[in-house]
Design brief:
The chain is an alpha/beta fold. It contains 5 helices and 8 strands. The strands form 2 sheets. A 4-stranded mixed sheet has the order 1-4-3-2, with helices on one face. The N and C termini lie far apart (52 Å).
């Protein structure tokens, strides 16, 4: 069929395959990651989440109080618009910034995944987040997977033990071993 189409449009078959070969080689070159470039990225410095105006104090309560992240000093000029939290001694951080109204119109499946050291700590944190949801309050998560039940993510052997929650601003968060 292809040969008929090529003949119909008077395209020389050898030329057609040369063009295809060049496209294939070009695409493979573009998709291939250079080993030297791959070594440049060594990890994540921070993730940035957004919360509604006037709720940074709730971010402190949830991210520090419930999740146990360590608050960090932010630049003086940005104290009213940012909150930073260290993730243990990893050098990685969670940055929380004031968002725009349109950031909170629809829920999103975009999320960071926090790595937890072991299954016991994951279960403890899951209970802590669930308890905060049940207790309620302004800084309480909007959603959280109930301990002992299936998580709200996709299922499969590829996924380790994990759970999901949405913070008070609706940011989806994953916690995994």
């Amino acid at each position: 069929m292809l040969l008929c189409v090529l003949r119909l449009y008077n395209i020389h078959i050898a030329k057609y395959f040369r063009v295809l070969t060049r496209l294939y080689v070009f695409q493979k070159r573009e998709w291939k990651t250079s080993p030297s470039i791959a070594k440049m990225i060594t990890g994540l410095h921070h993730i940035n989440l957004v919360v509604p105006p006037g709720t940074l104090h709730l971010a402190h309560e949830f991210y520090s109080g419930t999740l146990g992240l360590t608050p960090r000093v932010v630049p003086q000029l940005q104290r009213e618009t940012l909150a930073w939290f260290d993730i243990g001694a990893s050098g990685q951080q969670v940055h929380v910034a004031i968002g725009k109204p349109e950031d909170f119109v629809h829920t999103s499946s975009r999320h960071p995944c926090f790595k937890i050291g072991n299954r016991e700590d994951l279960a403890t944190l899951r209970h802590k987040v669930w308890d905060h949801l049940q207790k309620g309050g302004e800084a309480a998560p909007k959603e959280a997977d109930k301990p002992g039940e299936k998580n709200s993510g996709a299922e499969g052997a590829e996924y380790p033990s994990r759970f999901f929650a949405r913070d008070f601003a609706g940011n989806r968060l994953e916690f995994s071993v």
